[in-house]
C-alpha cells in the first residue's frame, strides 16, 4: 500500500528527547533480581523529557510498585530527570527509548540493546512506526521492520511477552486526512502482526492507547503531559496485572 509520498507517518519533526540533571536521588533502588524484566521500547514518548513533557514510565512504575509486583525495568538508556521517591524507593530509570528514532533504526539496534541490557521477559513496544518518514520508506517496509523487531525479541527469549501499542494520536490539529489514513491503517495492522507473531510460548498482544485519549493529555502536538502519561500507564498496568499474575 502506497500513500502520498509527502505524508509523514507519525510525528517525526516533534519526537526528540532531552533531559535534566537528577537531584535528591534515593539510595534505595528497586531490587534488580526480578524475574519480570520489562523493557520499555520506543522513541521520545518512552524517553520523556521532563519538565517539557512526560514519559509514561514513572506513572507505570508507581502503579506496579504500589501493587506489590516484582519487576525490573531494563534498557541501555537511563533517565536523569527529577522524579520523587515512591514508597521509599527511587524510580527505576532504565529504558530503551530514544528521541526521534524510527523503526529502521530500532531494527538495526535491537540485537545490541538486548545483549547489553539483558533478556527481557516483557517488552512494551511504544508507537510502532511513529517516526517513519514515508518519503524514505514504504508503509510495507514499516510493517516489515515491526515484524523483524518482534522476531529479534523472540530470538533472544522465545518466552517473551510483547505488548504493541495502538498508539495514542497527536493533537487534533495535526490529524490531516493523509495522517488519519495511515494512522487508522496501522492501528489495524498491529493487531494482525500481534496475531501472526504469537507463538505457543510467546504472547504478542496489543494495547489500545487511542480510545479515550484527548488533546488535554498532550504537552505539545505529540508528547504526553502528566494526564497523558497517567492514561498510558493505566492502560499498560491493566494488561500487566494479568501477565504478572500468571
Automatic annotation (TrEMBL):
Molecular function as annotated in GO: phosphatidylcholine lysophospholipase activity
Q: Which residue numbers delimit the SGNH hydrolase-type esterase domain?
A: 89-230
Q: Which Gene3D superfamilies match?
A: SGNH hydrolase (3.40.50.1110)
Pfam families associated with the record: Lipase_GDSL_2
Top-level taxon of origin: Bacteria
- Mind telling me what this protein is named? Lysophospholipase L1-like esterase
Organism, scientific name? Flagellimonas meridianipacifica
In the record, what lineage is assigned to the organism producing the protein?
Answer: Bacteria, Pseudomonadati, Bacteroidota, Flavobacteriia, Flavobacteriales
